[in-house]
Design a protein that fits this description.
single chain; about 190 residues; about 0% strand; 8 helices
Length: about 190
């Protein structure tokens, strides 16, 4: 495993192939993977522009990202993750191709307007991020009107479900433990 990462330093294409295989194994389509990888590249271009605009702290990037998300989706990134039922997983890895397209559109529009107007500091960059999130919102509203349905989905790509401890009942926990003991006991027979 360590030698694989060293090889990736000398040939970054290996890391890209690993990422593509990771997504394929999880059932993502090549179209989705292509959009996701392009989104990563576009995101890096945006953060470079923000850096030039005086954004240096990690929390500032989060604030600006939330401005874009809130404007087009009505939710901050944390709220969007909660809506989709995910915790630590990547929000973008759990978006549909349409949701990724609107996220990318907001970020690309933010990047282009930031290049044009050259905002400096958090407050000026927030104004630009909010304007550009609105570009995605207008496109989203237009598509939803034509489709006659919402395009933001609470679906995620998890192959598992979180268990919420506060909703467990003691009897259910005992049943699970007993079931585990029985499986273990019968496995040895």
């Amino acid at each position: 495993m360590g030698s694989e990462r060293i090889n990736e330093i000398f040939d970054p294409g290996i890391a890209i192939k690993r990422a593509i295989n990771y997504y394929r194994k999880r059932g993502y389509s090549d179209k989705w993977i292509e959009a996701r990888l392009k989104g990563i590249l576009d995101r890096n271009k945006l953060t470079d522009i923000w850096k030039d605009g005086g954004i240096l702290q990690d929390y500032e990037y989060g604030i600006l990202t939330n401005e874009i998300y809130k404007e087009w989706s009505g939710m901050k990134a944390s709220e969007y993750k909660s809506y989709k039922g995910i915790r630590k997983e990547s929000l973008r890895d759990n978006m549909s191709d349409i949701e990724i397209a609107f996220t990318d559109l907001g970020e690309i529009a933010t990047r282009e307007l930031a290049k044009e107007y050259k905002p400096y500091g958090l407050e000026q960059n927030k104004v630009i991020a909010k304007m550009d999130g609105n570009v995605s919102k207008v496109a989203r509203d237009n598509l939803e009107e034509k489709l006659g349905k919402y395009v933001i989905s609470n679906q995620n790509n998890l192959k598992y479900q979180y268990l919420d401890k506060k909703n467990w009942k003691m009897g259910e926990i005992k049943d699970e433990r007993q079931s585990y003991k029985n499986r273990k006991k019968y496995k040895n027979i």
